[in-house]
Structure formats: structure tokens, C-alpha cells
Automatic annotation (TrEMBL):
EC number(s) given by UniProt: 5.4.99.25
Family, per entry: Belongs to the pseudouridine synthase TruB family. Type 1 subfamily.
Source taxonomy: Bacteria, Pseudomonadati, Bacteroidota, Flavobacteriia, Flavobacteriales
Keyword Repeat attributed: no
Catalytic activity: uridine(55) in tRNA = pseudouridine(55) in tRNA
GO molecular function: tRNA pseudouridine(55) synthase activity
EC class name: isomerase
Keyword Thylakoid: no
Name of this protein: tRNA pseudouridine synthase B
Domain Pseudouridine synthase II N-terminal: residue ranges: 37-185
NCBIfam families attached to this UniProt entry: TruB
Organism listed in the record: Flagellimonas aurea
Domain of life of the native organism: Bacteria
Keywords, ordered alphabetically: Isomerase, tRNA processing
tRNA pseudouridylate synthase B C-terminal domain boundaries: 186-218
């Protein structure tokens, strides 16, 4: 089990972020657990890529000297699984906000759903959601969105190397996506709805891989804390 020196010298910790936790809360939970266990005044700790509160799955948390590895880890390809709900949109492109528009889905077939994925493969231009933590003029976009301000958001180049439909049970469509850093799956949901001549929002999201790291090897923050209390040697 890890010692105080291990955490200070640097560890890569794989955490399965629970639903409704922020990534910051997950980092904080580990930070407090490590500090308390080893009576540390401070320890460097950070995560390699935010997950929205409504998403679950792999969060890579680096401690000590390994916090220097964060940019390199953030740059790796990511795999997500989840669910799009067709026939409606929300301002945040997910369940954080209420449905604001509904659309017909009678014309959508299994074949058209599978065909639509091909439009998003390779390098594409994607516009991030207005409800995101990106900054414009020093303010986060979601702050401007909540104030009801109109904001022009520039598109950016992202890459989707795999986009697979794993279940169709309209209005729900399950998917698996492998994509580059900076991809918003919420924007993909929104654009996917448009591509089908309808609307869509992201109703479930789980990050399953970052590079070679897999969520199957991750533990929840609470299990991490329990293991630390039981097993760690000071």
C-alpha cells in the first residue's frame, strides 16, 4: 500500500467519479483523505480532464511530482459510452436544464441513425456548448448563459476516431465514442439530433478510457478513503 513518500513523489490514481459529484469534489475528497492519514499540511494534487457532474467514470488524479504529467495525460484519446435522447433539446445539451424544444422522431430509422454517425468521423469542427466552463472575456460561458447573454462561440477542430451505436430504443440511442481532447459529447448529442432532422440531448455519459487507462481499474473516492484508512502505513 502507498506510503506518505509515495504520494509526495507522485502517484497516478484512477477514480470512478460518482454521479452528481464535480471533478473538483473528487480531487478534494482524496486530498483531505491523504492529508489526514499522513498528517500533511499540504500535498499537490490535480485531475487530468474534467467530467461534468452528470457524467460518471474515469477521472485520473495525480499527486505530488506526478502533477507535472497532467498536460500529457489530458492530451490522450478518450472513450465514452452513454445515451442520447432524441426528439428534444435542452439549452445545456444535457439534463442540467429543462427541455426547451421538441421535434418529431417518426421519420428516424435504425439505418438513418447508423448512417448519421459517419458524418462525425475524422477531424470535424465542433462548437462547444454555451453551458461549459470555457472562458470568454474573463467569464465562464455557463455564467454568461445563466445571465441570459447572447455569446458567439467559435468552433474548434476535434477528432472522432470511433462512433458506434450500441442500442436503439427510441427515443433513446446508446453509443460508444473514441475522441480527441477537447471534444464535448454534449455538443455531439446536439449535432447528432440535427443530423437526423430532429433534436437530441445527452441523457447519460460515462468515461471508460483515457489513453491506456481503463475505468475497470478505478475505485470510487469513498473506497479509496476506506482503503487508505485500513491499509496505509505511516
Amino acid at each position: 500500500m502507498n506510503t506518505k513518500e509515495d504520494f509526495l513523489n507522485g502517484q497516478i490514481l484512477l477514480i470512478d467519479k460518482p454521479l452528481e459529484w464535480t471533478s473538483f469534489q473528487a480531487v478534494n475528497a482524496l486530498k483531505w483523505a491523504i492529508r489526514k492519514k499522513f498528517s500533511l499540511k499540504k500535498i499537490k494534487i490535480g485531475h487530468a480532464g474534467t467530467l461534468d457532474p452528470l457524467a460518471t467514470g474515469l477521472l485520473i488524479i495525480c499527486t505530488g511530482k506526478f502533477t507535472k504529467k497532467i498536460p500529457e495525460l489530458q492530451g490522450q484519446a478518450k472513450e465514452y459510452t452513454g445515451t442520447f435522447t432524441l426528439g428534444a433539446t435542452t439549452p445545456s445539451y444535457d439534463l442540467e436544464t429543462e427541455v426547451n424544444e421538441t421535434f418529431p422522431i417518426d421519420h428516424i430509422t435504425d439505418a438513418s441513425i447508423k448512417d448519421a454517425t459517419t458524418q462525425f468521423l475524422g477531424e470535424i469542427d465542433q462548437v462547444p456548448p454555451i453551458f461549459s466552463a470555457l472562458k470568454k472575456d474573463g467569464k465562464r460561458l455557463y455564467e454568461l448563459a445563466r445571465e441570459g447573454k447572447e455569446v458567439e462561440i467559435k468552433s474548434r477542430k476535434i477528432e472522432i476516431s470511433e462512433f458506434e451505436i450500441t442500442r436503439i430504443d427510441l427515443p433513446e440511442v446508446d453509443f460508444r465514442v473514441v475522441c480527441s481532447k477537447g471534444t464535448y459529447i454534449r455538443s455531439l448529442a446536439h449535432d447528432f439530433g440535427k443530423a437526423l432532422g430532429s433534436g437530441a440531448y445527452l441523457s447519460e455519459l460515462r468515461r471508460t478510457k483515457i489513453g491506456d487507462f481503463n475505468v475497470n481499474n478505478a475505485t470510487s473516492p469513498n473506497v479509496f478513503k476506506e482503503n487508505l484508512e485500513v491499509n496505509a502505513s505511516t
